[in-house]
Amino acid sequence: MTTYGPEHLPYGVFSTADSPGHYRIGVRIGDRVLDAGAAARAHGVQWASDFNQPTLNDFLGRGPAIWASARGWLQENLGGASRTSQWEALLHPLDEVTLHLPITVADYVDFYASEHHASNVGAILRPHTEALTPNWKYLPIGYHGRSSTIVVSGSDIVRPRGQRKGPGDAVPVFGPSVKLDIEAELAFIVGGETAPGHPVDIEAAGDYLFGIALFNDWSARDIQDWEYVPLGPFLGKSFASTMAAWITPMEALREARIPLPAQDPEPLAYLRGSAEVSFGLDITMSVELNGEVISIPPYGAMYWSAAQMLAHLCVNGAALSNGDVFASGTISGADRHTCGSLLEVTWNGTQPLTLADGSTRSFLQDQDVVTICATAPGAGDTVITLAEVTGRIVSGAAT
């Protein structure tokens, strides 16, 4: 069983200690990183110029045919015994490189695609009404986030400050969030551009889906609770989101494809896609708090597919760009131990979580470290291990 073998080959961007300002596109194989740009130059492949860039954005724009060609070339040359000494010389030990955000994020949309999560949030925040809003099963609900605050895994997260109004507060107060939360999500990376006014048909959505990365959409629940009516999330979300340093190509996940849950009522025509393009993914996540697993969210339970989310986000004529990111929203299963947020795990703090050291958590404390990991079935009975996404909470400067 391998986790970073030729069946996976995720893409990232790295630098080395002797040239820290030189960002290079890398491909992970085992515990080493291939300098993909140097390999492409040495062999004169047609996409060499795209690999010799500080981000993956140009390569994203090349489209599915070149993505497949590059992947096939990499698999052929990185495949174990067939690897030549010339290729060996271009491999760097993983622990000797610095990883960076692999793309320049063009735009960012966050969805709300888990029925279990949406139902839990509805029950917590609107206990005397229907848990799901009337529109939820007719369209993938989402909001536009802030692309400039997406950071690479390993970055510290400064506790945000803002207005909040607790049950005992006569008026809102200003200060650091006291209900800082996580959201275990999956990010989809878009390759390809469209012109304004030209939606993407759902059957063509796969042509724009380059790959995935684990994603943590940190959330300040107290700030969010005070601000979200009537326009939705704003400062409670926009301070930081963390993305894994390695992007797993969609092609590496072919064996992980599974049918979607039954969608009732039937989606409108523009959201109906064939099983070949509109599918779920058999990805099992684990959420660790200070090294202790507190939840195992199943992506396979998600209601809306990536193809449906992509078709919806541009059906109004919004343009797509290379490096767009859209996230799934919190991934949650049917019970407390499969929920992807502390809001659900602790039921908004009313059922605190007890850790192995005896401490309790309703929400995150300073110096807490959250790490999200995931696996999926790969080709030939292998296991695809997605690159982890991790972050540590630090206090902000007083104002």
Describe this structure in words.
The protein is α+β, with helices and mostly antiparallel strands and 399 residues long. It is 16% helix and 29% strand. It contains nine helices and 26 strands. It has helices at 36-43, 48-51, 57-60, 64-78, 85-88, 115-125, 221-227, 306-313, 342-345, and strands at 11-16, 19-29, 32-35, 91-93, 97-100, 108-111, 142-144, 150-152, 156-158, 161-164, 173-176, 180-181, 184-190, 209-216, 219-220, 241-243, 248-249, 257-258, 280-281, 284-289, 292-295, 325-327, 353-354, 360-361, 369-377, 383-394. Strands 6, 7, 8, 13, 14, 16, 17 and 22 form an eight-stranded mixed sheet that branches. Strands 4-3-2-1-5 form a five-stranded antiparallel sheet. Strand 23 (353-354) and strand 24 (360-361) form a beta hairpin. It is globular. It starts with 10 loop residues before the first strand and ends in a 5-residue tail after the last strand. The mean pLDDT is 96.
Write the layout of secondary structure elements.
Blueprint: E1 11-16, E2 19-29, E3 32-35, H1 36-43, H2 48-51, H3 57-60, H4 64-78, H5 85-88, E4 91-93, E5 97-100, E6 108-111, H6 115-125, E7 142-144, E8 150-152, E9 156-158, E10 161-164, E11 173-176, E12 180-181, E13 184-190, E14 209-216, E15 219-220, H7 221-227, E16 241-243, E17 248-249, E18 257-258, E19 280-281, E20 284-289, E21 292-295, H8 306-313, E22 325-327, H9 342-345, E23 353-354, E24 360-361, E25 369-377, E26 383-394
